[in-house]
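Fold this complex.
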Amino acid sequence: MGYVSARGGLDAIRAAESLVRTKRLVSESNWLEEDQILDKLRLLVDRVMSEAGLWDPRLASKAIRQSEGDATEAVHLLRAYRSTLPRFAYSEAIDADDATVMRRIVPAFQRVPGNQLLGRSVDYTARFLERTGDDDAREEAEKLRAAQTEESRDIEPASEEIAPRRLMELLREMDMLVDRRLEDDPEPFDITRTPARPPAPRSALLSSMARADTGALVNQWYRNILGPDGYLHEVTLGEVRHANMPLNVRHPVTGETVTIMQVRVSEVEAIEDLEGVEEDRSRFDVGYGLCFGHNERKAIAMANLDIACHRDAGRTQLEQSLLLTTDALDSAGFLEHLKLPHYVTFRSMIERKIAVRKARQRRDA
Amino acid sequence: MRSHSRNFAFTASAYLAGDMLMQATAHRLIEVGEQCLAMPLLADVLKIVHPPTVGLVMMQVREPVRRERFYLGEVVVTRCEVLVGEIHGWAMVSGENKEAALAAALCDAVTRTTESEFAEARTAVEELCRETRERLEGQVRREWTELAPTRVDFEEFE
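Structure:
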């Protein structure tokens, strides 16, 4: 069998594309508005922005609609669009302490500076599937809206309530933390310009995890803490926050720092009990997680993996796994290319099998 | 140490016009921009240096564990630069919004004019900044009104 070049299928490809588009645009149900996606599927919008490494809720909702709810496909669309845009600037270095919280819990400590603020969370909600009819749900919505309007007296928050001190600061005051604060201020690694390869600076690891696939990161965490890697950490969460973080840039004319907008983030600090021979067993260490949007699962996994990677110090393949196998677009792209025609490679594989058989037959003859 | 505590708008009596302009709503920016352009003296001296362009800002964060900087991800913004006479105006607004970016750059330049013939435009921009500050402060208060009941009050047993 020789190699035969062939072409074809163009009409079929066009018809398949047309079928997708037609089925998406022409249906019996109402047109899905961007605002509905932003309001009603907010956590999906957040997840897509986080995994795309791109903050723009409106574009993310467009991508979700176009991808018919396929989060990974939506990430692909956003990353592709992002690649067409110029990079204007790096923002000013925004201090994580400048964020104002909408939710803040400290599982490690009961009485903390500021409050335990549960905020908008389903953590304490029984997972019963609501089977209320649409009409009843609409009626309830109207009642709730009316109740909101009646309670119109707004409350002014104190600054320590929406920007509470961290548990980490308290632990530092108690001399319970290993002090890893840097003396210098290294330039961060930009993973959008250069692929990060181990050994990489911590800033590359944090950036990679901040835009990693949520499922991949949770899987890495689970494998690391309970799985075959055999690292059973004694982990307690310090801070779990959902907060608004300002995007600040330098005004080129006035030289002043100006706030362009607020970006919502999930932020986690994971406290690790140190028990290694070469570690300071009288103190704790802390890992950090931060990602776009409200995605606590991802931020918790990130914080735990940050400290796990530090303690691992390159002894295992953890850093390599985090840097090279957790990106949604990389992994799904490689996986999905398998659906493309592999006629030639597979034909050559068959030819090799036939050759092996012939060689065996000659040897046995 | 808080590097940018003035972001807590409700605690700050002073505010930067730049902060408020960039965070004004698009429709109000466009309204005030059009109001300024309707003034012949201003429209005559307006030049667009860099037309509104959609692009990215890489968000840089300093984390609290090692006080180390890292890049969180990119944010979509629209940027524009204008000249009002000799005065540079610059704006960067969130998302894809070319009209709002142009209006914001114009308003930004207006805030630095001193000529009496632009006084009316300055008043309109100052009013926009004031109402934006009130809107942002109101948002914080409304949000907190919903959040405050979710604070945990611990009851200790002796």
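Residues 111 and 124 of chain B are 10 Å apart (CA to CA).
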